[in-house]
Amino acid sequence: MKLGKLASLVRQNVRRNRKNMAFSAVGLVVGISSFFFFISLGDGIKRVISTEIFPVDTNRIQVVSPRAQFGSLNSAQRLDDKALASIRSIEGVKDLYPRMKLAFLASTAIDGRDLSPGALELLKNVPGIDPNRIQALRSVRMWLEIMGDGIDPRLVSNEVMASEFKDPAPGDPIPVLLSQRMVEIYNGSFAEARGMPKISAQLIPFIPPFPLTLNHSFISRDTRGTRLKTQMKLVGLSRHAIMGGITVPLETARKYNRQFVGPEAAETYDAVIVEVRSSDFLGPVQEEVRKLGFDIDLREKRLAESVGLTVLIITLLFTLISLIIVGIAAVNIAHTFFMIIFERKRELGLMRALGATRADIRRMILGEATLIGITGGLFGLGLGLVACLLVDTLAASFLPDFPFKPESFFAYPPWLFFASVLFAVIFCWLGAIVPAHRAARMDPARALTGR
């Protein structure tokens, strides 16, 4: 039987039995829609984890000094310029980005009454800022202990949104970066609860400098030498910035460590981010770094992998439930085809008597199953997509802001659209293959005589 005639016969048979076919495909539509929904949800959550909550650089590792071991008499390996030169000489290392702790105490005292009327008016003109919340800044009274570190400006060059991130000239404010995670928590909890303006990329250029006192603490008296009163200016948000503190340019940290603590504090790094030429060098470089006596800080990566594994297990569980639904639909489809074949046995016997081969009968039944699978898969795909969009709309309208709340909870990898329809077709084949085989083996004489 020619392909064109076979296709025409398949469409005619499906149209003739559309009620039975539609009823058998209900479970298929539900299963495929739930499959699409849960896979998209799992991918969307993993995207938020990997890009916002625990971003991990594939070609970078963080090297730290070895942690002190209980009972060990060996002094810790210093991470200084000499050590950096040794790491840089390792084959596969592309670049180094050192980090240095602020080894001195610092504090800030913020009083909203000190904000000038002009600064408040400027903030009111920022797009997306509620003018009523700007006035809440007047009531702000904060006395904070400041922790911080210095970082190589090259590492965060694409995250600076205002001014420049470099060691400032005398008298100029110190440029600082804040952690994206810390700001997200502030926006989703602290700012929302207290009616404060949220920090955003649009707002950063308009935020005025804040007072900063170096070599000073409200809590500890353990400060030596004179304190230095200066200012700090927020210039951007960075995933490389320290959590719960400020991050300044590396040379700024070095300068003030030398001034308030001494030369050793200005020459010792807290960590160094090592960038390799490609992911193929990650293993060998880590091995060579450990041979030099240093450790690899994998805490962020392990935490991200742990959370990602939990999301993956939950996604697989719901996907398995979806596939079970589709499997039950396949059984229902098999029952429907057995019933249809019984009703059409005289017709099938006549086709065999007129020259149709067993392969033609088998192809016809499987062709009908394919058409049901494609149609049911597309309907399930559409229903799943509508469910995803509905959840996003309801979440945007009714869920309050919370840390790391995404614009969409779903991600739609291109393969998922194809896989949804393919799975529908495969399960339809599984349901139809036994009835097709039985129909193909039917004896034409018995079918025509009703025996």
Structure description:
- This protein is an alpha+beta fold.
- The protein has 2 domains: 3-54 and 304-449, no CATH class; 81-293, no CATH class.
- It has helices at residues 3-16, 18-24, 26-53, 81-88, 117-124, 131-134, 180-194, 250-260, 263-267, 282-291, 299-343, 345-353, 358-398, 414-440, 444-449; strands at 60-64, 93-101, 106-111, 141-146, 148-151, 174-179, 210-214, 228-238, 246-249, 271-276, 295-296.
- It has a 6-stranded mixed β-sheet.
- It is elongated, with a radius of gyration of 33 Å.
- The two termini are 27 Å apart.
Helix content: 40-55%
Radius of gyration: 33 Å
The poorly predicted ranges are 68-75
The dominant shape is elongated
Task: Walk across the major sheet and give the strand order.
Answer: 9-5-2-10-1-11
The overall strand count is: 11
Q: What is the residue-averaged pLDDT? A: 82
What composes the largest sheet? Answer: 6 strands, mixed
Structural class: alpha+beta
Supply the number of structural domains.
2
Q: Quickly count the helices.
A: 15
- Gap from first CA to last CA: 27 Å
**β-strand amount:** 5-15%
Succession of helices and strands: HHHEHEEHHEEEHEEEHHEHEHHHHH
